[in-house]
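Batch job 17 of 40 flagged for manual review because the log was empty.
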Amino acid sequence: MYELCQPTGTAGYPYFLFGSQQDQRLNYRSVIVHRAGLAQETAGDGGVSTSSSAETGNSVSALASAAAGRRVKFRELRRTKIVCTIGPPTASYEMIKALADAGMDVARLNFSHGTYEFHKKVSDAVDRVNEERFEKARRRWTSHDEAREQLTDSAKSVAVSDAGPLRTESTSSSTDSLNSVSGLEYRNDAKSALYVRIGKMMDSKGAEVRSGEINRAEEIAKRMVEHGLVTSDQVTELVSQNTMLMPAGSSLVLRCTHEAFEKQPEPLEGVAVKGSVLPFAPVVGVSYAGFFEDTAEGDCILVDGGLLELQLERKDADKRDLICRVLDGGELSPRRHLNIRGKTASLPSVTESDWKDIEFAVKELNVDFIALSFVNDAETVHMVREFVTKLGSRAAIISKIESMKGVLNLPAIIEASDGVMVARGDLGSELPLEEVPIVQSFMVRLCRAAGKVVITATEMLESMIEKPIPTRAEASDVAHAVEQGADALMLSGETAKGKYPIRACATMRHIIMRQNEQLIADERARQGLDPIAGFAECCRDVERVSDAMARAAVSLAESLDAAAIIVFTRTGNMPKRLSKLRSRIPIVAATAVSDIQPKLSLLWNVFCVTIEVQDTFEATFQRFKEEVLAENFLRKGDTVVVVQSGMRGIWREQGHHLLRYVVM
């Protein structure tokens, strides 16, 4: 039995294991001692850093091989992925490389900000990081290949025999290859090397309602000084920021015309709401003229997510004015977001500008994901998918749920999309704050049940924009999102404009790692390592054979305490089905299709590697085995479960679905 020792290194916290289910898994800088007195320490995302054993004095390699508890790298990797928004401070190649090393899995290009030239620069930097990662892996494997060529025939025979016999069924009669499926041709163009590609996600601007320009800040500030609402010292600061201070109880007019949006009108006299602290009402334009029809008297209008809260008192149809009372005072800057609590503006989800941005992102940037803002229905997703397909791209569509209408149509949106983003910022503007956590949990559960990617976003580590460490509440928020089962978490301003982008990414990685390991320990304690635990669950809710095979693979792997589940894929469908089950066993997706790997980069607990395809399963698996053993991702003697299932077979007859139990 394994015993828990006091951790060493910088973390300084224990690894909680329950009862008899003490396990060999390692968390960030924690140490678990084998009963023979052997110890090993890991750091970061799984690399071995130090080793200590006063009794034996053995080297790290000797300790690793001697310990009965296997420390495989796949088990030490993060299950939950990280999306980082790239902004001016992080747009350079050096910063993107540092973010990738800190834990970034997908780089987000926010088309609400920045020019096409900026996004092209970021995309090129990500491509350069990916190419350098491949070249490093390729050089390593070139040296392995040269060494292999020097083996004698007898040595080669011994090397092959170590794997044991691997039988394949009806190989000679198989009519399908790894390069084609369902009549579509897939390029077998993936470069053969074990390395992790950073995915690229474009985030559309979407249709949004914003307040207009503010050109009369100085005039309005001086009038407020006359009424004793601000001091003269505040005037200079407000004017320099082109900002108006709106005290609680004052009046504000929102004029829904294009002219007022571009140039701020003069303040209105005599239209102030009853009991206003000011005899005049500043006027600010609105970007969307239809906002006038979308509102009704008594509506609550939120500015910038609730930093300024207004109540609509009355409407003036002639001037298209919304005369509002300021409920919670605050500052009003140009072009701030406007939302109606509990309502969705009647704007199209995809604007003309969005279509151009999507075309540029697909053609020029070759993005892997398209995040659609303000998706309100499934029809929007279908239109964008058709448009992207005509451009020759298979980019995954991620629908951002940011409105009440989107929440009401969530099941249909999930079915039409490849994934969903819980965009808590705008969602929290349309919903009461106390409803946001409930809706978040509901969305995660629905996506998990459907086997679709779900990303939790907005203000995950917001304080790290200015501070080097997050608040305890933010750390708990990240841990809770991991516990709910989100496939990925997103950093927005923390990496787009923050002072500590690398530290923010590394902090999120450490919280995720710790929570992932604790959840695995909890699951093992719950299951009690019963060989048939959960088998009945594996037989429920089966929609097709592939679902049954995925559940059977997970059940077999957990019963055997396998080191990994291996699946050879060309479309990514089976890894998605396996990830949906949230098994503690790492899922290794091996593919020869180059654009599959980044699309799997958001899937929970899926680690995608590229392979060199051979004519038979035995030859391909032997090559794969040599690479993962040489890289120490797996070790000799490890048990793996290989699942072969899908619409059409790879190295097998159509209709045959197979599980293989292999000792490495």
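Reviewer: the log was empty due to a logging misconfiguration, but the result itself is present. Residues 1-72, 152-192, 529-542 have pLDDT under 50 and may be disordered. Unflagging and moving on to job 18.
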